[in-house]
Amino acid sequence: MKDDLWQLGERNFRSRIIVGTGKYSSLDETRAALAASGAEIVTVALRRVDLKSKEPTVLDAIDRAKYVLLPNTAGCYSADEAIRTLHLARELGMDELVKLEVIGDPKTLFPDNTATVEAARRLVAEGFKVLPYCSDDLITCKRLEDAGCLAVMPLAAPIGSGLGIRNPHNMRLILDNVKVPVIVDAGVGTASDAAIAMELGCTAVLMNTGIAGAKQPVLMAEAMRLAVDAGRKAFRAGRMPRRDYANASSPTAGLIE
Amino acid sequence: MSVRIEIVVNGEARAVDPGTSVAALLGELGFGDRRVAVERNREVIPRAQHATTILGEGDRLELVTFVGGG
């Protein structure tokens, strides 16, 4: 079968799962889960260094030759904060791709879509390659596409909730009406959620807690990899039409009498 | 004895000798060999300027790095 690659700007990717690096119990577990997921892109956050401890950091678990780093702006509540964070991320050395998130509310962690669009415009003007977390709202996705984002990343459910694809119809409308890749970001709780996202036609899925929050994260990382792959293949294969009544699989002619 | 100057690093007050550079501060804190991004008074100090940027009284520094996140 021909390679089923996807693009972000000029770059080709094979893996359709992007994974976060938060909430693991150790760096060894992080390393093993990343490997089992098959991800080529991994997200990281930016925080103050610990002035008292010189323990290894997440960067020690990420082989930069294997993974593209995708710094996020988690915890930012304004366009200015998000941009300030990414200026620092750029200084740390990264691959131009950034995950923009401007949060609007601490309880739901829903995005502030207006501020996200504003931040996206400014970051694109500065040369960043922006992947924005946003609501599963077509108009917001179109604004972000118009702003020059390389993809849109609508949430499937609140961050860390594991509630799955709450509104597949909205996701379908987004898929039908934007040209850039659509990456489901947030809400995937188990393998079937990832498969559903891919069967809808999403380009890729981004997840963190769905893997790190499992009882056995490394096993779940593998399950997610297989589910994303299965969902993608099912999408490409084109599912059979749904029918209200049965349609026999065996011939109706030639029955014995 | 020279009078030490007061700065704030990641929210914590700290005294350093006059003439201390950003690079020297990073060394003093044990981050000499680590990739750390530095912001002084909300302005990023590029790595190439760490050695030549001298800290001043009241400077507020943010030293950041990547951590696990989603």
The helix count of chain A comes to 8
Strand order of the largest sheet of chain B: 2-1-5-3-4
Total strands of chain A: the figure is: 10
Counted beta strands of chain B: 5
Output the radius of gyration of chain A.
Answer: 20 Å
Q: Provide the residue-averaged pLDDT of chain A.
A: 96
Specify the structural class of chain B: mainly beta
Please state the overall shape of chain A, judged from the principal axes of the Cα atoms.
globular
Helical amount of chain B: 10-25%
Q: Could you tell me the strand content of chain B as a percent range?
A: 35-45%
* Radius of gyration of chain B, CA atoms, in whole angstroms: 12 Å
3D architecture notes:
The complex is a heterodimer of chains A (about 260) and B (about 70). In chain A, about 35% of the residues lie in helices and about 15% in strands. With about 260 residues, chain A is of the alpha/beta class. In chain A, the strands form 3 sheets. In chain A, strands 5-4-3-10-9 form a 5-stranded parallel beta sheet. In chain A, β9, α6 (about 190-200) and β10 form a beta-alpha-beta unit. In chain A, α1 (about 25-35) packs parallel to α8, α2 (about 80-90) packs across α3 and α6 (about 190-200) packs parallel to α8. The longest helix of chain A is centred in the last third of the chain and has 21 residues, at about 215-235. Chain A is globular. The model of chain A has no long low-confidence stretch (mean pLDDT about 95). In chain B, strands 2-1-5-3-4 form a 5-stranded mixed beta sheet, with no helix packed on it. Helices cover about 10% and strands about 35% of the residues of chain B. The mean pLDDT of chain B is about 95. The interface of A and B includes residues 43, 71, 89, 159 and 208 of A.
